[in-house]
Amino acid sequence: MSQLVESKGLIISSRNYKEKDKLVKIFTESAGKMMFYVKGIHRQNQPLAPAIRPFTQAVYIGTFKSEGLSFITSVKDVHAYRKIQEDIFLSGYGTYLLSLVDAAIEDHQYDPNLFHFTQQALERMNQGDDAEIITNIFEIQILQRFGIAPIWTHCAVCGETQGKFDYSSKYGGVICERHWSLDPRRYHADPRAVYFARMFSAISYERINGIHLKEETKQAIRQLIDQLYEEYVGIHLKSKKFIDQMKSWEHVLKPLEKKGDAPATEQEEVAEEPESPLSADPTDHE
Ligand SMILES: [Zn+2]
């Protein structure tokens, strides 16, 4: 029964348990999220310590239980997302992404696509790509795991794919300007925000390098996604509140960073990939 298995995994969260132990939630590639009981972690030279820090990926070897607590015996290939670990802003975004993963699927649910998607998001963030854009893409694509699949690709009324769009709950997706009158209670979102939400719904993380957004566009996107989450997901994560608050003090801590002030350009290019990396998954979370 206690056969050892191994799997790649990402640390989702870690908390102290009793005096010297920890409960660590790991998103494993081969068996979904699981809670692990790690003993004596506060001892010096506990070999597992670096592998269970937040924002770490490793291969975890141990006993994986389908119910109750699992155990780690050893680890290999430990990879820390060091930049995220060391930067309070990045850890804010990273924590939020991981909390979304935790909220979106059940423990023990096999979901390698979401595993890879999460891994990519953290990797990108760690490499210095825009954490807000990475987060927005994550939020939009993970909606599917909450059982929500808005129509982004075309007007939900007539199929139009070009022009200005708004979001309509009534039609469960975007509607083109010609059909705005059909839903007076549409979101009245900034068309630029809807433009980028549509792009983000189908983009893969390899293609985000060239996207640079102005602060006001970012704010409009934030508003749109908040409205979607409020309406369809309805969870209020502490980590989300933290990044919202962070906005008000981040420029105080980073006053010198944008000295050169290169003009912000926004790349406008509609993603051509029809499918998001996540929508290919047949094991939909309902
Ligand atoms: Zn239309």
Brief rundown of the structure:
Keywords: DNA damage, DNA recombination, DNA repair. The chain is built from seven helices and seven strands; from the N terminus they run βββββααααββααα.
Bound ions, cofactors and other small molecules, one mention each: zinc ion
Give the fraction of residues assigned to helices.
25-40%
Strand content: 15-25%
Structural category:
alpha+beta
- Walk across the major sheet and give the strand order: 3-2-1-4-5
**Can you give the mean pLDDT?**
89
Rounded radius of gyration (Å): 20 Å
Unreliable parts: 258-265, 268-274, 280-286
Order of helices and strands: EEEEEHHHHEEHHH
Number of helices: 7
> Can you count the beta strands?
7
What form results from the Cα inertia axes? elongated
Query: CA-to-CA gap between the ends?
Result: 31 Å
Describe the structure.
Belongs to the RecO family. By secondary structure, the protein is an alpha+beta fold. Helix content is 34%, strand content 19%. It has helices spanning 82-86, 88-104, 112-126, 131-142, 191-202, 215-233, 238-253; strands spanning 5-17, 21-28, 32-38, 56-63, 71-80, 165-168, 173-176. It has a five-stranded antiparallel β-sheet. A two-stranded antiparallel sheet has the order 6-7. Strand 6 (165-168) and strand 7 form a beta hairpin. Helix 3 (112-126) runs antiparallel to helix 4 and helix 4 (131-142) crosses helix 5 (191-202). The model is unreliable at 258-265, 268-274 and 280-286 (pLDDT under 50). Bound molecules: zinc ion (ZN). Zinc ion binds at residues 155, 157-158, 160, 175-176, 178-179. Zinc ion (ZN) binds at residues 155, 157-158, 160, 175-176, 178-179.
